[in-house]
Design goal:
This protein is an alpha+beta fold. The chain contains 22 helices and 27 strands. Helix 15 runs antiparallel to helix 17. It is globular. The protein binds D-xylulose. D-xylulose (XUL) binds next to helix 14. The site of D-xylulose (XUL) has 14 residues, from helix 14.
Length: about 525
C-alpha cells in the first residue's frame, strides 16, 4: 500500500441501515454505499429495521440481518469496483445499547470464516438468542428497579456508571435475558454490543468493547473504565466472562480476517480499529473538542451531546459516557426517542405529507405557536420520561385539547422536541455556545431555524450529514495513527485538515425571547405529564 494512497473506511450499523463511508488521508470523502434493512433485505420483514413485540415495549432486530447486510454491502462495493486494497484501517459505529448473544462455538465459526460462502450462511446458527434487543426496547423496567435497589438508588447507579438505570441500557437487557431466556443466557459464550459485534465480524474473533460504547450498559465504572463488580453481580451470574475486556476506543481490535482478503482484496496490513456507539462516533465526526461545542443529531432518535472534562452524572436525565477520542475525557448526552419518525408521522398526518408542505405550515405559524404546546409520544419516551404513548396538546392557558388546527401540530412537534432538549441538556451541563446540527433533518432550513431560535445560538451543519459514519472514518485514521506512532496522538491533530462547517441559522432575538418566555409554561406542562 502506497503511504499517500491510503483510504479509511467507516461503517455505520444503525437501526435502519448499514452504511459505508470512505475517506482519503486528506479527510476527503471519496465513496459511500449503503444497505437499507427494510427495502434491501425484505425477507426479514422489519419496519424501520426492527420488530415490535406484542407487549408494545419489546423491540428487537434479527441479529443475522446485520450479518446479511454486511454481505450485501461488500457485494455492492465490489460491483462499484471499490479498491479494497487501499484501505489501511476500518472502524465503525453501531446503534448503542443493542446486544448480540453468541452461543458456545461462535468463536470457532468466526475464526474459520472462508470465502466462497456468505457470512450469513456461515454464522446463521451461531446465536444463542437470535433476536437482539435494541435501544428502542423499554421492556426492562423491573430489571432497572432491581439494579437501582442493589446499588443504592438511581443516583448511586448514575454516579458509578454515568447514567441511572435505563430500560434500553445493555446490562438491564442482559438481566432480562437471564431471567426470561435462561437457557439462551447460559448458552452464550460471548455477549457483544452491536458495535463490537460488527468489529468481531471483520476480525473473525471476539473483540473487546470500547470504553465509550461500554458506558451505555449500566455495567462499567465510568472513571476506571473497568466492569463494576457490584453492577455485574446484580445483573447476572458469570457475566464478566461473557463480556470480555473493555479497551480505549482508539485501540486496534485486530487485523482484518483472511475472509475479507480472499473475498474482496483487503490487504494483510488492514487494521480494524475498535468500533464504538453512534453517538460517540458522531462526537468524533463533528469534531466537538471544546466544552460548549454542542451537537444535536436529528435521526431516528434526537440526541444532544458534547465533550466534558469532568462528569456530573444525574439520576433524572441524560448520560455521561467515556469520550471516544480522548481516553481521559467524557461526553454528555441527552436522548429523545421520538425524533425523525415522529416528525414524519406528524408531517404525513397534519402537513400534507411533504417537507415542502410542512415548511409552509411552519411559515404560517409564529415562534412559540401562540403558547400552544404538544407532546408527540409515538414511542415510550426517554426524555422527558413519558412511558404512556399518545399526543398531549395544551393551549396557552394549560388546558388540554383534543386537537389543534393542523398547522399548529407541525410547529408544536418541532418546538416541544427542542424545548425539551434545552431544559434537560442544561440540567447536565450542556450549555451551547453554538450548535452543530446533524442527521437527516439537519438539511431542513425551517427545522434548524427553530433550533437556533429556541437555544438563542447560531446553528451550523457539516457538508457530510452522516456524522456517525464519518466519525468512524476519522477514528479509523486516528486509531491507525496511534498504532503507527505507538503512542496516543491528539485527535485534534488527526482532524485538523477537515472541511470548515457552514453556519445555517442565526437566532432571531424576538423569536428567542418568545421561547425563553414560554419555558416555565413548557416545564409545567411537561411536569403535569411525567
Ligand atoms: C442513545 C440511544 C440512541 C441510539 C440510536 O442512548 O439510545 O441514540 O444509539 O442508534
Amino acid at each position: 500500500m502506497q503511504e499517500n494512497d491510503m483510504l479509511f473506511l467507516g461503517l455505520d450499523s444503525s437501526t435502519q441501515s448499514l452504511k459505508a463511508i470512505v475517506m482519503d488521508q486528506g479527510l476527503k470523502v471519496v465513496y459511500t454505499a449503503s444497505v437499507n434493512f427494510d427495502t434491501d433485505l425484505p425477507e426479514f420483514g422489519t419496519e424501520g429495521g426492527v420488530h415490535h413485540g406484542p407487549d408494545g415495549l419489546t423491540v428487537t432486530s434479527p441479529t443475522i440481518m446485520w450479518v446479511a447486510a454486511l454481505d450485501l454491502l461488500l457485494k455492492k462495493m465490489a460491483e462499484d469496483r471499490f479498491d479494497f486494497a487501499k484501505v489501511a484501517a476500518v472502524s465503525g459505529s453501531g446503534q448503542q445499547h443493542g446486544s448480540v448473544y453468541l452461543k458456545k462455538g461462535g468463536i470457532k465459526a468466526l475464526n474459520g470464516l472462508t470465502a466462497g460462502n456468505s457470512l450469513r450462511s456461515q454464522l446463521e446458527e451461531c446465536f444463542s438468542i437470535p433476536d437482539s434487543p435494541i435501544w428502542m426496547d423499554s421492556s426492562t423496567g423491573q430489571q432497572c428497579k432491581m439494579l437501582e435497589s442493589a446499588l443504592g438508588g438511581a443516583q448511586a447507579v448514575a454516579d458509578l456508571t454515568g447514567s441511572r438505570a435505563y430500560e434500553r441500557f445493555t446490562g438491564n437487557q442482559i438481566a432480562k435475558m437471564f431471567q426470561t431466556k435462561r437457557q439462551g443466557y447460559e448458552d452464550s459464550e460471548r455477549i457483544l454490543l452491536v458495535s463490537s459485534f460488527m468489529a468481531s465480524l471483520l476480525v473473525g474473533d471476539y473483540v473487546p468493547i470500547d470504553a465509550s460504547d461500554g458506558s451505555g450498559m449500566n455495567l462499567m465504572d465510568l472513571r476506571s473504565k473497568t466492569w463494576n463488580r457490584q453492577a455485574i453481580d446484580a445483573t447476572a451470574p458469570g457475566l464478566e466472562q461473557k463480556l470480555g475486556q473493555i479497551v480505549p476506543s482508539h485501540s486496534v481490535a485486530g487485523p482484518i480476517h483472511s475472509y475479507y482478503r480472499d473475498l474482496c482484496g483487503f490487504t494483510r496490513d488492514c487494521l480494524v480499529i475498535c468500533f464504538s456507539g453512534d453517538n460517540p462516533n458522531s462526537l468524533a465526526g463533528l469534531r466537538l473538542q471544546r466544552a460548549g461545542d454542542i451537537a444535536i443529531s436529528l435521526g431516528t432518535s434526537d440526541t444532544m451531546f458534547g465533550s466534558l472534562a469532568s462528569p456530573t452524572p444525574s439520576a433524572s436525565e441524560g448520560h455521561i459516557f467515556a469520550n471516544p477520542v480522548d481516553p481521559n475525557g467524557y461526553m454528555a448526552m441527552v436522548c429523545q426517542k421520538n425524533g425523525s419518525l415522529t416528525r414524519e408521522r406528524v408531517r404525513d398526518e397534519f402537513a400534507g405529507g411533504t417537507w415542502d408542505a410542512f415548511d409552509k405550515a411552519l411559515a404560517r405559524t409564529p415562534a412559540g405557536n401562540n403558547g400552544n404546546v404538544g407532546f408527540y409520544i409515538d414511542e415510550p419516551e426517554i426524555t422527558p420520561p413519558l412511558l404512556q404513548t399518545g399526543v398531549f396538546r395544551f393551549d396557552a392557558s394549560g388546558t388540554r385539547l383534543d386537537s389543534f388546527a393542523p398547522d399548529l401540530d407541525a410547529r408544536a412537534v418541532v418546538e416541544s422536541q427542542f424545548l425539551s432538549l434545552l431544559v434537560h441538556g442544561s440540567n447536565i451541563g450542556l450549555k451551547p455556545a453554538g450548535i452543530l446540527a446533524t442527521g437527516g433533518a439537519s438539511t431542513n432550513k425551517s427545522i434548524t431555524t427553530i433550533m437556533s431560535n429556541v437555544f438563542g445560538v447560531p446553528v451550523y451543519a457539516g457538508e457530510q450529514p452522516d456524522s456517525a459514519a464519518l466519525g468512524a472514518c476519522y477514528r479509523a485514521l486516528h486509531g491507525w495513527q496511534c498504532n503507527a506512532a505507538q503512542a496516543f496522538v491528539p485527535f485534534a491533530d488527526t482532524v485538523k485538515g477537515a472541511p470548515k462547517i457552514q453556519q445555517v441559522a442565526t437566532p432571531n432575538a424576538a423569536a428567542h425571547a418568545a421561547y425563553s418566555a414560554m419555558l416555565d409554561h413548557y416545564r409545567a406542562l411537561e411536569g403535569s405529564l411525567v
